[in-house]
TrEMBL record:
GO terms for molecular function: DNA binding; DNA-binding transcription factor activity. The keyword Ubl conjugation does not apply. PANTHER family: GNTR FAMILY REGULATORY PROTEIN, TRANSCRIPTIONAL REGULATOR, GNTR FAMILY. It comes from the Bacteria. The lineage of its organism: Bacteria, Bacillati, Actinomycetota, Actinomycetes, Mycobacteriales. Residues 43-110 form the HTH gntR-type domain. This is Transcriptional regulator.
Amino acid sequence: MKVGAGVGGERGCGVHWKTKAISALPHHSLHTMIMNHFPHKIRSAADQLYRHISKEILEGVYRPDQQLSEMAASEKYGVSRNTLREAFRLLIQEGLLIHRPNRGVFVRAFTVADLEDLYTFRRMCEAACLRHIGSDPDATASCIAAMRQSCLDADQAMANQDWNALAIANNHFHMAIFSSGGNSRMTRLGRTILAQSRLVFMTSGQEDKVHVPFIRDNKRMLEQIERGSLSAAVISLEQYLNRSQANMAKLLAEKQ
C-alpha cells in the first residue's frame, strides 16, 4: 500500500531544502520544521495510514506483542518516517500500539485487568447505537444488509473452520451496529474499540472458542432488529457481551 508522497525534499512536495542544512539539525527540530511546513500533507497521509493499520489489526494481520519496525513499515506502506511516526502516535493514542523505551513500537497485548473497562465501554456504546437504529433510514438499511452478510460469512467460515475469517465476520456484524446511526464519530470509535477487542481475542490464542459460541446470538439479534424489537435486541446484546466477557476472562486467565 502506498499511502502518499513523502515529505522533506521527496518528490511531490513542491519545496526543496538544502541537504546539509537539514542534516545538521537535531531530529526533533527537523520533525518540527517538517510539521510546520507540511502539516496538512503529513497529517492527511498519517490519518490514512492510521486507518489502514487499524483495519489490518481488526483483520488479524498483526498479532499482540508484535514489534513494528520503522524501517520495514516505512518501506511496506511507502511513506516517510515522519508520516509513519505520526500514524504510530495516533495508534498509540487509540490504545492499539504501545511504545517501549529503547525497544520500539509494539502491538498492544491486553490482560484480564483490561476487560472490565473494555466491555463496559462496549455495553454502553453498542446498546446506545441499537436503541437509535431507524433514526437514519439509509444507514439502518446498510446496517441490516451488512449484518445479513456477516452471518452468511460466519456460516461459511465455520464450514471451512477458518477462525480468522470467522473473527472478521463477527467484527463486521458489530461494526454494522456502530455504523447504524450514520454518525461518523461513532463509526470511528467503533472501529477502534473493535480493533482493541480483536487484540484481546488474539491474546487468548483460542479464537475458535471466542467466536463460535456467539454466531447464534448474532442471528438472534438480526432477527429482532428486522422485526423492530429493538428493546429485545439490546437485552440480547447485553447478555452476549456479559457472556463474552466471562468467557474471555477465563481464557486469558488460562493463558497467563
